[in-house]
Amino acid sequence: MNLTLDRTASTDAPILDVLAERWSTRIFDPVAPLDEAALASALEAARWAPSANNTQPWRFIVARRGTEAHAAVVATLVGFNQSWATDAAALVVFAATTEVDGRPQHFATYDTGQAAAHFTVQAHASGLHTHQMGGFDRAAIAAAFGLGADITPLTVMAVGALGDVAGAPEPLRERELAPRTRRSIADSLVGA
Amino acid sequence: MNLTLDRTASTDAPILDVLAERWSTRIFDPVAPLDEAALASALEAARWAPSANNTQPWRFIVARRGTEAHAAVVATLVGFNQSWATDAAALVVFAATTEVDGRPQHFATYDTGQAAAHFTVQAHASGLHTHQMGGFDRAAIAAAFGLGADITPLTVMAVGALGDVAGAPEPLRERELAPRTRRSIADSLVGA
């Protein structure tokens, strides 16, 4: 356990503790059981995200460690992600209904990002850690889980308890303790 | 003021109050000044959203009521949105860097959705209301604000104080008081 690990963002304006303290670990506890109540709350938070015309384009695959589904998701991850994400108690695929009756859904990806953000905020509030990954084989996920062409897998989120940071291999520990950085808000303003 | 208006979601699992209570109003106070501190906190929350390889693809245009920028954004909104969103103290355009050095950025839209979600969560915690719109002329926004081809406007968010729901025109009041609904989580699970 790393109860003293403080990854709180150094913010320029006050924000909710849960938003400042949330970060994306790569060091998960490989044996701690999944907190099912916390997972249910995180999914529920995702459920109540806003979306264009309330279309709710998000779709989820929840793969728990030790199941065939988990092994199938792990097999789609690129090597570096496999090396640490396999430890997480769950891998949650965030997918979107990107097509309905042949019509592209222009806000499906954006809105699924919103649902994922709600998930992570609630997960952290409930004591879970999360890390989203883009490095996986989308076609392999679609094939393994029989997804139709209208559903696009977007990210895989590792979800679970924080692992032993001090005892983690050097490359992971180093990344974990590196300062958290973001561009300033001023540098994100355009068109002014 | 509508201090007794309760739009709290009826959740199947406990979630943070701010996530349950956040909803997308269409009734903004047309005269209340913008709470600049709350806006700064909401932008700061967006700043600390996660993104693929920390690319931070989000870009913002902040258009305050009474400015030329505000009028320019209003002019791009489709008619129904114009009818209510013009009242909001600010219109914030969420755009994404969808291309870098000619390479498409596959997670830019999703990650900007995450930043928008962080913004809305913090905004509501800070007493602001928000409503995201997809109904606007993207090309007109790009032209009005001189955005390059690498930046794609995704949504316009109305941001401000809640208006007088009881005194609002019938079609708006009716939508405002309609029950909030979402598909069940079970219906969002795929591939199981």
TrEMBL record, chains A, B:
Q: Which positions make up the signal peptide?
A: none
Span of domain Nitroreductase:
20-66, 78-160
Gene Ontology MF, one? oxidoreductase activity
Pfam families membership: Nitroreductase
The domain of life is Bacteria
Q: Which Gene3D superfamilies match?
A: NADH Oxidase
InterPro entries xref list: Nitroreductase, Nitroreductase-like
Q: What is this protein called?
A: Nitroreductase
Originating organism? uncultured Microbacterium sp
Read off the lineage from the record: Bacteria, Bacillati, Actinomycetota, Actinomycetes, Micrococcales
